[in-house]
Every structure is written in C-alpha cells, then in structure tokens.
C-alpha cells in the first residue's frame, strides 16, 4: 500500500522560509514524477512544483525563483524549499507521486 506523508508546515511571517518534506512508502518511485500542489480556502488546487525522474523541474510563475523542489530517490522523498514566503502562499500543501498517489497535506500559514 502506497502512503505519502508530508511534514514541515507551520506558521511563519512574510519573508521567512519553510521546508516541506514528503516521504513515500510502499513502492519504488524513482521512475515517477513527484511534486507538490496546494489548495487555499475557497480556491482551486494549484500546481506548485514538479520534478521528473531525470531531475527536471517545473514551477508556475507564482513561485518561480522562490521555491525549489528536490528529490532523494534513495530515501523516497521529495522536498520543497520555500523562501520569501508571502501571505498568498497560505494553503494546504500536498505531495504526489505520478499524479496517482497523494498525501493528506500539511498546512502552511504565512502572516503579513
């Protein structure tokens, strides 16, 4: 059974940083894309970052230059370093593997 567990969320002030981690278990995911989405209250789910099996990354303009996604295939983890956080980054952040398996999410709250 595949499980994804996120950690690292919390409450920070605008301009500060957070690092999210997601540990996947129950399989081998080195050949799959992994990534992060977020959903703020009343808004649709939004892509945050994705990294493919070769390490290629993609970010939307809203986080480009501030967020960095990385993966450790030996540890089955995907991480998201978030710098220069803004109040509009407040959301529940969920990780995924191959857009098939999803974690339950971790809440990030950025105060102004």
Shape: globular
- Tally the helices: 0
The portion of residues assigned to helices is under 10%
Uncertain stretches: none
DSSP strand count: 11
Biggest sheet architecture: 7 strands, mixed
Task: State the end-to-end CA separation.
Answer: 40 Å
- Residues in β-strands, percent: over 45%
Mean pLDDT: 96
**Order of SSEs:** EEEEEEEEEEE
Radius of gyration: 13 Å
Structural class: mainly beta
Describe the structure.
This protein has 112 residues and is mostly beta strands. Helices cover 0% and strands 52% of the residues. It is globular and about 40 Å long.
Helices and strands in order:
Elements (H helix, E strand, L loop, with lengths): L2 E5 L2 E4 L4 E8 L8 E6 L6 E6 L5 E2 L8 E6 L4 E6 L8 E7 L3 E2 L3 E6 L1
Parallel strand pairs: 2-11
Antiparallel strand pairs: 1-3, 3-8, 4-5, 4-9, 5-6, 7-8, 9-10, 9-11
Descriptors:
112 residues, mainly beta, 11 strands, seven-stranded mixed sheet, four-stranded antiparallel sheet, single chain, globular
In summary, what is this structure?
The chain is mainly β. It contains no helices and eleven strands.
